[in-house]
Amino acid sequence: FCSLGFQVAPETKAVMKWLRSIPFVLSASLHGGELVVTYPYDYSRHPMEEKMFSPTPDEKMFKMLAKAYADAHPVISDRSELRCGGNFVKRGGIINGAEWYSFTGGMADFNYLHTNCFEITVEVGCEKFPLEEELFTIWHENRDALLNYMEMVHRGIKGIVSDKFGNPIKNARISVRGIQHDVTTGN
User: Fold this and answer.
1) Does one domain contain both 127 and 174?
2) Which of 43, 46, 93, 176 is the most buried (most CB within 10 A)?
3) Where is the signal peptide (predicted)?
4) Is the pTM of the predicted complex or chain greater than 0.85?
5) pLDDT tens, 33-90?
6) Which range marks the domain in which residue 64 is found?
7) Is the peptide bond before 39 cis (omega within 30 degrees of 0)?
8) Across residues 85-102, what is the average pLDDT?
């Protein structure tokens, strides 16, 4: 972000450092203001284009992760178009972030580009700043979806990359044929 001319707040720098120091593989950012699950990229490949689909090389995985959350959420999975978030019903309650609206400096894009962590953004309700008495309902609407999403950490390939003596190899590059996005091993 600094190379793009953005000033990075101290707390953002701390989170970036933390993400680079621990090999997280899955995260979610919770927001208010809509009822939908978005996934990277949040920044359009063409900055002058609004609402432009901007997939990562891991588009299929991100869609699966977003669907895991959306399908387990009782309101997002509701097929009524007359409810909060109803304009996303035909999309299954998920959307590519840049296709919804493009913005720079998002954590989901940073995580994907600079760490091994896949992050989705969950818009937990149509109220940007819900009242205290609404929080209990919001928690219950999202609890099982969060748990379902967390279980997705067990999807995919996992194991230990080691040398011929069985010693783990730190920062080994892992490539998957057909996906132009490598990950590295942790400590």
Assistant:
1) no
2) 93
3) none
4) yes
5) 999 999 999 998 776 777 899 999 999 999 999 999 999 999 999 999 989 889 999 9
6) 15-156
7) no
8) 94
Q: In whole angstroms, how far apart are CA 72 and each of 29, 43, 65, 79, 156?
A: 17, 27, 11, 13, 20
Cα torsion angle, 176, 154, 77, 130, sign: negative
- List the one residue out of 109, 142, 147 whose CA is nearest residue 125: 142
Q: Are residues 127 and 70 in the same domain?
A: yes
Q: Judge whether 64 lies within some domain.
A: yes
For residue range 156-179, list pLDDT tens digits in order.
878 889 999 999 998 889 888 999
Catalytic residues: 123
Task: Assess whether 88 and 171 both reside in one domain.
Answer: no
Cα distances (angstroms) measured from residue 46 to each of 18, 38, 125:
30, 19, 29
Can you read off the two tokens belonging to residue 36? 């939908």
Residues 97 and 166 in one domain: no
Indicate if 151 and 67 belong to the same structural domain. Answer: yes
Q: 7: pLDDT confidence band, cut at 50, 70 and 90? A: confident
Q: Which of 14, 172, 3 is CA-nearest to residue 107?
A: 14
Do residues 78 and 135 share a domain? yes
Same domain, 152 and 164: no
Smallest Cα–Cα separation from 114: which of 1, 29, 27? 1
